[in-house]
UniProtKB/TrEMBL annotation:
Transmembrane segments: none annotated. This is Response regulator transcription factor. It comes from Mucilaginibacter segetis. InterPro entries: CheY-like_superfamily (IPR011006), NreC/VraR/RcsB-like_REC (IPR058245), Sig_transdc_resp-reg_receiver (IPR001789), Tscrpt_reg_LuxR_C (IPR000792), WalR-like (IPR039420). GO terms for molecular function: DNA binding. The lineage of its organism: Bacteria, Pseudomonadati, Bacteroidota, Sphingobacteriia, Sphingobacteriales. The keyword Phosphoprotein applies. Keywords: DNA-binding, Phosphoprotein. GO terms for biological process: phosphorelay signal transduction system; regulation of DNA-templated transcription. SUPFAM superfamilies: CheY-like.
């Protein structure tokens, strides 16, 4: 029996996933939670999933932080990212953090179940077909593509990339904080930290730097 821990903050999505997975005779959803912190708490309290299925962006703790913490304490638990995010830099970050699989929320039920079984029965990583084809297309058309987010000696985290993208889209600190379930002060600190880290003079220069260095599109 494949034991699954679901981590998804949207109730409708989480309930739908549970219904799909529970239909399979060899898969059991042993716990479902809305954020990474509750997932860790569940494991500490004795739940023993074979696989965690989580989104990238969850309140309180994002998917990458969850991966790092789980892998540190429980290296044999496999983790699948199920996300709407198909940016290759996010995908590479997820695998570097320790993810075993990455699938888009648009995949078919058949591929979801296939991916879960494949990951459980092997030590191989798994990418859903849509992502694999997009990455292949990227490689074929961009021979010198760089899969690392670090720019020179500067390393920019996934969270910082996410905040940069929202800044570039014109959102205020308060609006970004609300979208990312954090405080305005945290966003202000991250923005200032990025300005200092990149050696830029202001927000406009920071966004220009991020675009020119392909940190954001």
């Amino acid at each position: 029996m494949i034991k699954i821990l679901l981590v998804e903050d949207h109730n409708v999505v989480r309930n739908g996933l549970r219904l799909l997975l529970d239909k399979e005779t060899d898969i059991e959803v042993i716990e479902e939670v809305s954020n990474g912190a509750d997932a860790l708490r569940s494991i500490r309290e004795g739940k023993k999933p074979d696989i965690i299925i989580t989104a990238v962006n969850n309140p309180q703790m994002d998917g990458l932080n969850l991966i790092a913490k789980v892998k540190h304490a429980h290296p044999f638990i496999k983790i699948i990212i199920l996300s709407a995010e198909d940016d290759y830099k996010v995908i590479i970050h997820a695998f570097k953090a320790g993810a075993t699989g990455y699938m888009l929320k648009t995949i078919s039920t058949f591929e979801l179940i296939f991916g879960v079984r494949h990951i459980f029965n092997s030590n191989e990583r798994y990418l859903c077909n849509d992502i694999a084809l997009k990455l292949l297309d990227k490689l074929l058309h961009t021979p010198d593509v760089d899969f690392d987010v670090p720019v020179g000696d500067i390393e920019i985290s996934l969270r910082e990339v996410e905040i940069l993208s929202l800044i570039a889209d014109g959102y205020t600190n308060q609006e970004i904080a609300e979208k990312l379930f954090t405080s305005k002060r945290t966003i202000e600190g991250t923005r200032q930290g990025l300005i200092e880290k990149t050696g830029t003079r202001n927000t406009a220069a920071l966004v220009r730097y991020a675009v020119l260095n392909s940190v954001i599109k």
